[in-house]
């Protein structure tokens, strides 16, 4: 049976001290009998403080991105070896915002090209994370225009094919896939539960058809996109939704702990 996983993506929020305080509050709010896996992904500069605050607890520390080369002239980039040294255990890759796809655009449209992630770079990052034994959380999802054009499944299949190209099933036993409909991220809109379940099932079926049935039974598929305490229980009871990748709601300890409780 797949263990539920709830991961908080803090995005570009919280200083080191604020992040440490949040982790401490989450620790205090977790139920003693917590049967799900819990992680938080702070900004790079807050990882060390969050790791220290999570010491001797069940909270795993992740990162929000990584570069695929181990070292070199790549100004502003962070390697897997740097993440390892910081005690990072999981890492988000291919988030829609790094791909330049936003549910709610908060930057000038002329600057969107700055966020240039592609399926090729996602694939390179995934391979680097797997080699470093860091759990990759691969994000996939469609924009509103793609959904309205009936392209949801095609878009996600293409992202899976590109992101996992050249990686065999026996290398992917730690893989986590997060379905995040772009139009639901940061907008307050949530994909209705039957449709979220359908897409997560489609992802699992893709893994079975393109890698192996055995892998499809163990790979965890999360839902992300305005997950909150009000909808978490309904989402997490679905058979193919193995938890959530939580954005804004993960910045509130009480709200995040309620979501974790829903996974239990």
Description:
- The chain is α/β, with parallel strands linked by helices and 264 residues long.
- 38% of the residues lie in helices and 14% in strands.
- The chain has ten helices and eight strands.
- An eight-stranded parallel barrel has the order 1-2-3-4-5-6-7-8, surrounded by six helices.
- Helix 3 (80-85) links the parallel strand 3 and strand 4.
- Helix 6 (152-163) packs across helix 7.
- The mean pLDDT is 95.
In short:
The protein has 10 helices and 8 strands. With about 260 residues, the protein is α/β, with parallel strands linked by helices. An 8-stranded parallel beta barrel has the order 1-2-3-4-5-6-7-8, surrounded by 6 helices.
Number of E-type strands: 8
State which percent range the strand residues make up. Answer: 5-15%
Query: Number of helix segments?
Result: 10
Category by helix and strand content:
alpha/beta
Q: Main sheet?
A: 8 strands, parallel, barrel
Mean pLDDT: 95
Please specify the SSE layout and strand pairing:
Elements: E1 5-9, H1 16-29, E2 37-41, H2 47-53, E3 59-63, H3 80-85, E4 90-93, H4 119-131, E5 135-140, H5 144-148, H6 152-163, E6 176-179, H7 193-210, H8 213-218, E7 220-224, H9 229-236, E8 243-246, H10 253-263
Parallel strand pairs: 1-2, 1-8, 2-3, 3-4, 4-5, 5-6, 6-7, 7-8
